[in-house]
Amino acid sequence: MTAALNKNKVLVALSGGVDSAAAAVLLSQAGMEVCAVFICLQQQREGRPSERSCCSPQDAADAAAVAARLGIDFQTLDGSEEMSQIKDAFVRAYVEGRTPNPCIVCYRRIKFGKLFELADELGAYYIATGHYADIRQADGVWSLRRAKAADKDQSYVLFDIPRSRLARIRFPLGRVESKHQTRAIVKDAGLVVHDKTDSQEICFVPNNDYRQFLAGRADRSLQPGPILDQAGNVLGTHTGYGQFTIGQRRGIRIAAAEPLYVLGIDPERCSITVGPREALACRGLMAAQANWLADVPGSFRCHIQIRYKNRGTPGTVCRIAPDRFEVLFEVPVDAVTPGQAAVLYDGDAVLGGGWIERAYPAV
Fold first, then answer.
1. For residue range 107-162, what is the model confidence (pLDDT) as tens digits?
2. What separation in angstroms does the CA of 241 have from each of 103, 120, 167, 246, 359?
3. CA-CA distance, 235 to 167, in Å (whole number)?
4. Are 135 and 166 in contact (CB under 8 A)?
5. pLDDT tens-digit map of 50-60
6. Coil, helix or strand for 82?
7. Catalytic annotation on 282?
8. Domain check: are 46 and 134 in the same one?
């Protein structure tokens, strides 16, 4: 049976890194009753993660040490089954010629889905993480917003959190000024992780070696195939379309008068199409599996962000179904990539977002 929820109690997800440690420190300093959990996303037989990835045994040990130092209850939670499903979807996307973003799926299904289940069991009303984003309330309405530290903002990858959950989420780092301030918070608390290196890769793709990860899982995407120009002429041969994404230049290895970029991926023919940079321009996109975090009309103007480190481009959004929308940009945008997220902003507030199904070329 679910315990009565205590609004002074918060379950914080400790990753073993600096940011989540700072979140735990700030919550403790605010007088909250803090308990902590480390989510194990990989079983040990799956191989040893690289030092720069998250979820390693060292991360688990660091998370436990942070909790012990702060004097807060700590436990681990198994998320490996859910992560296995996310990996399978990641592989399918590459086979289908899309470029997935598994971190967004992980946040919805594991780092928030399972966190809420455990919080309910523990009687904690709130959950918290070390993400750089903010949640605010105005006139009884909760909204997800960009972090104050603009260069660290992670609101883009959090768009898929269910709207009904916002009132119970806390992002203590949403209003810190910088990563330097975050590290200072952790150092002042006497935590040895204050100078730990940030993870820089997908946790289940060690060293960012996508080819190695896909080998044996998505061999079709690693088969040689033709490199085509926009007219369909064969320019050369690649060593696997799974190594490419829209807008990529590296790895094409075709001598040409001007740089060539990946314009399209055809998994049926195992081909990629390349062309000049100007051919990357797109006038719009179609997105599906929309998640709405605000009440919006059928058609509205906003800023549309199509990749992580980007501040968005103005355009018009038309809702064509409850879970689908179309975007028309004010000015063309390069490299709109199927499989990535299109997230919609009104100022610093996230209105919602969806998964890009297809792009509309500008020419």
1. 988 888 899 999 999 999 999 999 999 999 999 999 999 999 999 999 999 999 99
2. 22, 44, 43, 11, 19
3. 54
4. yes
5. 444 567 889 99
6. helix
7. no
8. yes
Q: What is the pLDDT of residues 222-281, one digit of tens each?
A: 999 999 999 999 999 999 999 999 999 999 999 899 999 999 999 999 999 999 999 999
Asked if residue 1 is part of any domain, the answer here is: no
The alpha-carbon radius of gyration of the chain (Å, integer) is: 22
How many CB atoms are closer than 10 A to CB 144?
Answer: 26
Assess whether 270 carries a catalytic annotation. no
Q: Are residues 46 and 185 in the same domain?
A: yes
- Give the domain extent around 28: 6-207
From the candidates 35, 54, 55, 106, give the one annotated as an active-site residue.
Answer: 106
269 shares its domain with 299:
no
Do 348 and 146 touch, CB atoms closer than 8 A?
A: yes
Q: Are both 107 and 176 inside the same structural domain?
A: yes
SS3 285: strand
Cα–Cα distance between 327 and 312 in angstroms, integer? 12
Residue 93: its H or E element:
helix 80-95
How far apart (Å, rounded) are the C-alpha atoms in residues 288 and 339? 10
Residue 98 maps to which CATH number? 3.40.50.620
Q: Among residues 54, 203, 270, 302, which one is catalytic?
A: 203
Number of structural domains found in the chain? 3
Q: Please indicate, yes or no, whether residues 155 and 38 belong to a single structural domain of this protein.
A: yes
